[in-house]
Amino acid sequence: MHEASIAMNVLDTVLAECRQRGFQRIEAVRLRIGRASGILPDALRFAFDIAKADTAADQAELHIELVPLGGHCRDCGHDFETPERVVFECPHCHGNDFSVARGYEMDIVDMEVN
Ligand SMILES: [Zn+2]
Predict the structure, then answer these.
(1) Is residue 32 part of a domain?
(2) Which of 2, 5, 20, 67 has the fewest CB atoms nearer than 10 Å to its CB?
(3) Separation of 96 CA from ligand 1 center, angstroms?
């Protein structure tokens, strides 16, 4: 299960950060996840809730911001954004000379500590 290992990584990162900065508890964690990343937010939330038990983050809420897939088309010069998980052609001119700029990320934005 892909999401379980991601949840563990996120948890390890925020727990280490929390310890390093001398805080006791993590109240919330904000993540930014690209729509094309293949990560399922619900599965990630579920995995995180299991993983956080008996840690300083056991009450932490996970906030997930989904980033749409987007890029730039070299054929028509438009920047585009799509609700789809994959992009095969530019939504403006249907050309296929484009670059994808976002939609694959998995970043920890910040966290609330106490
Ligand atoms: Zn185009």
Answers:
(1) yes
(2) 20
(3) 7
